[in-house]
Amino acid sequence: MKQIKAVVFDLDNTLLDFWGAKVISCNASIDAMIKAGLRMSKKKATRVLFELYDIYGIEHKEILQKFLIQTQKKIDMKILSAGIVAYREIQAHYHKPYPNVADVLKELKKRKYKLGVISDAPQLKLWLRMTEARLTDYFDVVVSAEEAGKTKPESAPFLMALGKLKVRSEQVLYVGDNPKRDIKGAKILGMRTVLAEYGMQEGHKKHLKGNKPDFILKDIRDILKIVG
User: Fold this and answer.
1) For 6-16+96-227, which CATH superfamily applies?
2) Is the bond preceding 153 in cis, omega lying within 30 degrees of 0?
3) pLDDT classification of 2: cutoffs 50, 70, 90
4) Which residues, other chains included, contact 173 with Cβ-Cβ below 8 Å and sequence gap of 6+?
5) How far apart are CA 21 and CA 194, in angstroms?
6) Rounded to whole angstroms, what are the CA distances from 142 to 11, 68, 72, 114, 225?
7) May I ask the CATH architecture of the domain 19-94?
8) What is the pTM of this model?
């Protein structure tokens, strides 16, 4: 692709296994809360917690407080603190890139492509994850929805990245795992789109209709074939 000058990525579930980290962290949190006195089965607690994430968002800062109010009708500080500490202990060590990510980014840099990240994660959390995964030095531009004032698929984050990279939309290959947010948002502006199928959640498959990507990745190494 001679006209492609930049490759821009979503972060969570595209470069990092965010969902895997979330599941493991939540399991540890629930185990700790049960040990601290939560009277629920782990199966039920897990179901309720992820139902609350669906309602309030996967990044909600006080999801355990909402969980305890819904299930126990009050916030027991002993149970809450046990859950938060267990969650943080796992999160602090689990933000790792998918296999081959670093090698692919190195090769793209070697081939002189500009590289960017656009994420809906809060700005500080975005940078913390990238730093923990040792990815910060690969990217020319990092844009958070918080910084842009809008989340994907709104155009604002994409336009901010284009402006900072100093490229036109048709010169960008955009890679993401979410058809409704990533693929739709990038296609609206005329970017070439790549679906990171390896990171796509089951519930997102229904959004492929009407948001068909130009390419589908089984492995991130296939990016090197797409750019030629």
Assistant:
1) HAD superfamily/HAD-like (3.40.50.1000)
2) yes
3) low
4) 1, 4, 6, 7, 8, 191, 192, 193, 194, 223, 226, 227
5) 23
6) 10, 35, 41, 12, 24
7) Orthogonal Bundle (1.10)
8) 0.81
